[in-house]
Amino acid sequence: MSPIECILTRRSIRSLRPDPVPHEHVETMLACLEAAPSAGNLQPWYFLLVKSQGLKEELCRLSFDQQVVKQAPLVFVICAVPEQSAAEYGDVGRQLFCIQDTAAAVQNLLLGIHALGYGAVWIGVVKEREIAECLALDEGMKPVALVPVGLANETPKPMERRGWRKVTRTIE
Ligand SMILES: Cc1cc2nc3c(=O)[nH]c(=O)nc-3n(C[C@H](O)[C@H](O)[C@H](O)COP(=O)(O)O)c2cc1C
Predict the structure, then answer these.
(1) CA 98/CA 79 separation, integer angstroms
(2) CB-defined site of ligand 1, < 6 Å
(3) pLDDT per residue over 75-126, tens digit each?
């Protein structure tokens, strides 16, 4: 599929099959993650791959029981490392750039997953402290998103958007 087709056909998949994701595909997904742009190319992120059923169940519980988290054969946890950005950019790095960089990485991951023929959904981290504790994250790592991935068990309708014409103004 072309890059444009990949972007335009990606959908959030919230029902996944349990079949494992082969290691070479996981490695391609990780390469997509770190190919994202980041301010000053600082790459202020850290990734966890969760395969343990016990931990997936705990992450599911800490994500308002969204079943896809424990259904998935694999859950990516994408963390920001704010002090890495702060060292170069101060507060704007700590509060803004590291989150933007990490969000770009998550979107790259979602597109790579789709291009490889798998499904996934971005699960927002609300219970940040509890999730950090459950994963025994080092101090200074901020979990930003969970991405459960696997073979899709549903085919959502084509995407709905407000229409870019309504939210775009050209200045000439
Ligand atoms: C920051 C963020 C948090 C999200 N959290 C959730 C979530 O917790 N559960 C979920 O099912 N989808 C979540 N989503 C996915 C959105 O609901 C989804 O992208 C949106 O409805 C558009 O659908 P699409 O991805 O199929 O285009 C999240 C997306 C973003 C960007």
Answers:
(1) 9
(2) 11-12, 14, 66, 121-124, 159
(3) 999 999 999 999 999 999 999 999 999 999 999 999 999 999 999 999 999 9
- Does the pLDDT at position 159 exceed 90? no
Residue 171 CA, ligand 1 centroid: distance in Å: 31
- Give the residue whose CA is nearest to atom 21 of ligand 1: 12
Say which residues have a Cβ less than 8 Å from residue 162's Cβ, sequence separation at least 6: none
Q: What is the pLDDT of residue 104?
A: 98
By DSSP bridging, strand 74-80 and strand 123-124 are: unpaired
Domain ranges of the chain: 3-167
Provide CATH code, domain 3-167.
3.40.109.10
Mean pLDDT estimate for the chain: 97
Name 21's Cβ contacts closer than 8 Å, sequence gap at least 6.
Answer: 29, 73, 74, 118, 149, 150
